[in-house]
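Module 6 notes. Inverse folding takes a fixed backbone as the condition and produces residue identities as the prediction. Think of it as a translation problem where the source language is geometry and the target language is the twenty amino acids. Below is one complete input and output pair. Work through it position by position during the lab.
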């Protein structure tokens, strides 16, 4: 009979299971959040919270118990110096499980096991309507950029037209100034020809 044999075996013997719990709890304390399967997260969550309770206690005996479980003095130092003081006013419930959905390959249910003083992270997908609304401002900005280029091109074309009109007006003025001179010269030549023909007559 399995009396007083609670907990998941996780397909491991007792030594491997203790090492797994120690590593997962240490990674949670060190990084603040780990990604694992829901079965492992539920198994290690109470053990990690026990370590934080030891850190809140803060005496030498608690430190030795934490080192015996976590097997890393660096992690224990971070636990007692940084993590536990953040939960000094919280009487339990130091971690939470956030579901992420099935894992590709074996469809195992994946979760985030994280400390509650960090931000909540949700893995969600935008609905098509939201994507369209989000894409609309980008399209408007893209439409505005060619419009700006077109306005620049129009301004350059108008400046070129003004320069062309100014050059044409200058040419017309020059022709207008030269026309009386040409008429006077033509009249003088006509008079000279008339005087030359008169004696012969």
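Target side of the pair, the amino acids:
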């Amino acid at each position: 009979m399995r009396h007083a044999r609670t907990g998941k075996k996780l397909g491991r013997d007792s030594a491997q299971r203790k090492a797994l719990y120690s590593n997962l709890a240490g990674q949670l304390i060190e990084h603040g959040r780990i990604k694992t399967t829901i079965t492992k997260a539920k198994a290690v969550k109470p053990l990690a919270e026990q370590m934080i309770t030891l850190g809140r206690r803060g005496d030498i005996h608690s430190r030795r118990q934490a080192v015996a479980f976590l097997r890393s003095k660096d992690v224990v130092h971070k636990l007692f110096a940084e993590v536990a003081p953040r939960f000094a006013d919280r009487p339990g419930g130091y971690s939470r499980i956030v579901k992420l959905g099935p894992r590709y390959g074996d469809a195992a249910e994946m979760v985030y096991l994280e400390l509650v003083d960090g931000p909540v992270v949700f893995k969600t997908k935008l609905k098509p309507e939201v994507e369209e609304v989000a894409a609309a401002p980008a399209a408007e900005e893209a439409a505005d950029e060619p419009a700006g280029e077109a306005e620049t091109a129009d301004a350059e074309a108008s400046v070129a037209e003004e320069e062309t009109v100014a050059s044409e007006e200058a040419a017309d003025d020059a022709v207008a100034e030269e026309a009386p001179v040409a008429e006077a010269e033509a009249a003088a030549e006509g008079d000279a020809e008339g005087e030359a023909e008169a004696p012969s007559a």
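Reference fact for the lab report: Residues 126-201 form one domain.
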